DNA sequence: CTGAAAGCGCTAACAC
DNA sequence: GTGTTAGCGCTTTCAG
């Protein structure tokens, strides 16, 4: 059943040359036109495929790149993944994917697995903080973060002094350690996206705007705080964990504890989904009773009624660019790239009532 | 920068034993308790990770399993992928993922890449027909299909004689070649799902029910034809290619060419999305003017208004079971498994008007 | 119970 | 130009 693979030796024998010659020909080295032709012909005829295992082992190089996302069921991360896969394919590189469930432990475990596979280039939407990522970069992995940055070790969501922290897009990123802070990242311009949304809501007359966030939305809260200006009503800032249940609970709790809020900004599409559901359950009409802006322009945003006003970020591009960075080895110039967001106004926001 | 990996040799030296001993200890072989302890200690201290490359090369075994899906942006396939990843992780196996875009050519290319990586176990939602898959199985790959079966070579969607074809779930699957027909598959019980939905619509008084399908929905049309019984109005059976645009065009065209239809069955969530959009664009009210049943119970189905009545199939389970099968080597007894579907009635269907 | 040695498929020196 | 050879890190006989 297990058909023995055709090896370079087989090709060499069949072509009446040495293995080195075959290797050279196949990797575009020098060879007499005649030999080259013969080898190529034989290789094709035998349907020879060089074993990546052998090659990688010999070259002590990695095969492929790794991709870690929190949840492939989330359309946005699906977009990111598609971007990474597209770029990797065009480079002929395989992609080993892992889903972390937004759990630092699973994330660490998956990284270990990648290391074992000699995959030393990684695109990650990080869940864990510096304590997870410091060892990884130190292990010699080339990593590029996508969509978000690792949170600080003490992830209380409430950065204390924001004064002497490194600024990325002007948002305190609380770089937990030098090495991790130097990891390039491909991010959406959260600051501008959130600011635009908040201004839009302001313009509509809203004053009590809630923020509904999830894991990894540190930069977005920070941007929210900045955009709102003045002291933020802390009760209006709530966080869920990664699950749908948790998102729903957070949204529902928010609406019930603060019936006076007039608008909510959901920092991710799962949060947005939860907000719509919770609002409906509580007989809150959108946008009459409450206005809603959601992060991520997923296809179904348009199907809601009313269609959801969203902050669109280019998931696919984020993935593609991250893969590009990691593939080109991120030569010095580690600073990553920031992609634009866009406020797409549909029907889920109205004037304050 | 590139830190040399700790190899088995390093561990052996540090522990004052031979490499063979280290290997044995780490793979649970025999060794004196004392030696074992020492080796384990040293390995842990050095943070030694055996290289999968070396191991796999030596054992001429594959590392990991492959996963090929049409599009990770489609929530359903995201669920399937999550299932596969979950199973693979619990088995400690890495997963190499590829997105085919429902294009047989890309699919073939990706399979080639997997072969090169020595990945010889594959879970696939197939796009190509027998001509793609026959060579693959013959190359010695262990493959398990998920969610659908490869279509016939002449994929006209209109099987001619259904008499002497192999029946799977009683649906003509048009097995294009012995080898491919023997590939195990994990499928949802499309036949029952579709039948239930059609009966439900019948019960509501609908007689002109349209079928909106996409790539890989051969079994579903077949089930539709069977459920409707009698000769089906062929104008009411339309197919889109994989893209969202195509789906929209198909849906829109259907509504316009046959304004007399009263219900539509969308064979996948992207088709359902398109149907909702097209209906809205044409000022068709759901369910007053047209009833809609969609395949796949994606989270947003509930967010639509009215919430969509769906045929739910367990995407995650499908992926998980498929991975299980491919991991346990699918010992003889290739027949796969069929998982139940469920009609979830929400608000998108009403009595015929 | 343990070590030495042979190779898995490949590439990169190094000879010819 | 082309062949020979020495490993890459690992497991697995085969002796001791």
From TrEMBL, chains A, B:
Q: Which SUPFAM superfamilies match?
A: lambda repressor-like DNA-binding domains (SSF47413), Periplasmic binding protein-like I (SSF53822)
GO MF annotations for this entry?
DNA binding
Name used for this protein in its record: LacI family DNA-binding transcriptional regulator
Keywords, ordered alphabetically: DNA-binding, Repressor, Transcription, Transcription regulation
Q: What region holds the HTH lacI-type domain?
A: 6-59
Tell me where on the tree of life, at the top rank, the source sits. Answer: Bacteria
Q: Which Gene3D superfamilies match?
A: 3.40.50.2300, lambda repressor-like DNA-binding domains (1.10.260.40)
**Organism classification, top ranks?**
Bacteria, Bacillati, Actinomycetota, Actinomycetes, Streptosporangiales
Question: What SMART domains does this protein's entry cite?
Answer: HTH_LACI
